[in-house]
Amino acid sequence: MKLPEARAGAARRLAAAGIEGAARDADRILAAVLVVEPGRLRLLDRALTAEELAGLDQGLAARAARQPVAQIVGFRDFYAHRFRVTRDTLDPRPETEVLVQAALDLPWNSVLDMGTGTGAILISLLAARRGAVGLGTDISGAALDVARDNAQIIGVTAGFVLADWYEGVTGRFDLIVSNPPYIALSEMAELAPDVREWEPHGALTDGADGLSAYHAIAAGARDHLNPGGHVLVEIGPAQGSAVSILFAGAGAETRVISDLDGRDRVVLARFPA
After folding, report:
1. The whole model's pTM is what?
2. Does the structural domain 88-270 have CATH classification 3.40.50.150?
3. Residue 107 annotated as binding?
4. Do the annotations mark residue 170 as ligand-binding?
5. Is 115 annotated for ligand binding?
6. Predicted confidence pLDDT, tens digits, the chain (273 residues)
7. Is 154 strand, coil or helix?
8. Is residue 179 a known part of a binding site?
9. CB neighbour burial string for 181-198, b if at least 16 within 10 angstroms, e if fewer
10. Does 138 belong to an annotated binding site?
């Protein structure tokens, strides 16, 4: 089967399975099988080998079962780098790049990333600010293994430790960042099956009202920040006010930052010296 025919057939198969963005996802899967970038597919015109066809079939079957493309191909591009992704980590979202950019607009030389997952936030920050130091924590040892691999592949030196929020974290930092589990338990059923059935629930929801992590982060921030330090946390689009109140109650000056779609996405909290 020639590549153009395989490409068109893959898109039709995913569309028939009800996958939104079928052509885009089919291209990402096919490109990963061929070890090329998706944009080069239209430039190629050759027959696929039996092994490549089997790999494509396996990838399409997984996507039809609603497995996220990043898990199927094994990576996600985020900010300026490519990150390995597994079922033990959240798939880094483009919206989280808002937090990275906001952090790079601040003065800091040391950063703590809690709930680091793939390490996408921490590694992106340290890669962009050479000479800075950073620590990533997570409650999942498997996620930390992925983060360590990503740091090594991208060429960033960072520390990674198993920790439940501030538990076991010593020292102080100029900046604390986190994309914590902020989906309320009552909202989990509304998530797309791609997320609900495939990504780690502990990284999605706190099993309560979606605010538990912010209580913990705000309560311990001052004890883990250098004077005048900042906290940046990703939030759900309806959580700006509630999260801001939590940090204000802990003594911070707060501001809500919107994403490119105009939705509340990040709370910035500054703790005065």
Report:
1. 0.94
2. yes
3. no
4. no
5. yes
6. 899 999 999 999 999 999 999 999 999 999 999 999 999 999 898 999 999 999 999 999 999 999 999 999 999 999 999 999 999 999 999 999 999 999 999 999 999 999 999 999 999 999 999 999 999 999 999 999 999 999 999 999 999 999 999 998 999 999 999 999 999 999 999 999 999 999 999 999 999 999 999 999 999 999 999 999 999 999 999 999 999 999 999 999 999 999 999 999 999 999 998
7. helix
8. yes
9. bbbbeeeeeeeeebbbeb
10. yes
